[in-house]
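User: Let's play a game. I give you a shape written as tokens, and you guess the letters that built it. Ready? Here's round one.
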């Protein structure tokens, strides 16, 4: 069973912010209005950063800065790590865990196509929540060098797929190939 690509689950029109916006009256207010936890920051048509709730907490609130004076350009996360729209969502999830992020902009040929979030992935593969929770707790996946996803033979979700005869299979199905 093949998993979905990032293109199939991403948010196509993510909420955007501009460099000159203020964190509180513009950025945070926009997040609240749209019900999102982040904004894709653009300069014209160019992706330049991400502003997240975490950025606001760590770079404004925790440092006792006035959010009415803080600019998005001074608080945003940059440089931005992006992913390709054709990446498998299990690989996107792995990248998020490895980078300790919950969202990644989707870019092709330098053009912003969308945003994929942990929530987008869990919507299609709720079984991944156990793995992402374990990784969040331990800081490391149990099987760092193995692939996770659904077994192509029996359909069970596992964090230890093995490649055999061109198929990704769980340990139980792997034994049937021996």
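Assistant: Ready! My guess for every position:
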């Amino acid at each position: 069973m093949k998993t979905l690509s990032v293109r199939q689950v991403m948010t196509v029109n993510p909420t955007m912010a501009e460099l000159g916006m203020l964190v509180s009256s513009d950025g945070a207010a926009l997040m609240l209005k749209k019900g999102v936890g982040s904004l894709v920051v653009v300069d014209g048509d160019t992706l330049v950063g991400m502003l997240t709730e975490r950025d606001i907490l760590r770079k404004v609130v925790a440092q006792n800065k006035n959010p009415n004076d803080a600019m998005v350009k001074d608080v945003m996360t940059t440089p931005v790590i992006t992913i390709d729209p054709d990446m498998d969502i299990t690989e996107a999830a792995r990248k998020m865990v490895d980078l300790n992020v919950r969202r990644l902009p989707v870019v092709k040929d330098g053009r912003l196509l969308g945003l994929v979030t942990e929530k987008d992935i869990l919507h299609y593969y709720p079984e991944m929540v156990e793995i992402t929770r374990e990784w969040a707790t331990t800081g490391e996946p149990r099987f760092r060098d193995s692939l996770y996803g659904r077994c192509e033979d029996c359909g069970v979700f596992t964090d230890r797929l093995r490649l055999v005869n061109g198929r990704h299979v769980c340990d139980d199905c792997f034994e049937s190939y021996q």
